[in-house]
Input
Amino acid sequence: MTDKELVRRRFTVAMGSYEDSAVAQRSIASRLAALIGTYAARQCAGRVLEIGCGTGLLTRGLLEVAKPEELYLNDLCGAFECFYSDLPGGAVHFVAGDAESVRLPDRLDLIASASAVQWLDDPVGFIAGCRQHLDRGGCIAFSTFGPGNLREVSALSGHSLFYPSLPCWEERLSAFYCLLHCEESELQLRFSSPRDVLLHLKRTGVTGIGRNAWTKQALQAFCRSYEEKFGDGGGVTLTYRPVYVIAKKQ
Output
């Protein structure tokens, strides 16, 4: 089970640094927005809900694709609402809270989410259940991460979220949706040092699965092992494994 209070605190602390540091997440949100424009453009103009809106990387892409009649923005961190003060009032509604327990709107044309559902306790079950909030012909479009995501860190720390594979998503969701597009890819970032990797993760809030503070000895050992296994003398890597799914309610 995910410690969602810890996740909420870590992302709230990272609010001020997320926009500049979320290089992979920005690329993923851009790709997802493009896929939505291709496969679900009509739904973008209706009633839209975004799960895990954060600072608005996907939100801005959705607004470029179309101007929804009603836009509902959900995030575990209520503090993120301040990022949407420039959006026109009346048609934009912020829904703070855990998406698995908060009351979500119904009769939606589109539910979208970028780089967020992996933090849920039951991501596949949640996405399957989203069909009850969709209107007839409504679509769900999301990105999450697959096995091997942040593999360098998980190999050394032993900490990792559970990442269902794309075939798992396809098998489970095909019972409830018509799958329009499924895709997986890899984004590899490079950093000067393992300390820069850890700083990147802290600045993007992606540290919500471990409570233990680094001791000097543990940090030194981690950095040494990271350089040995994932360095090439000119820096180190950090690998993201995004998964994209666009599906229509049957």
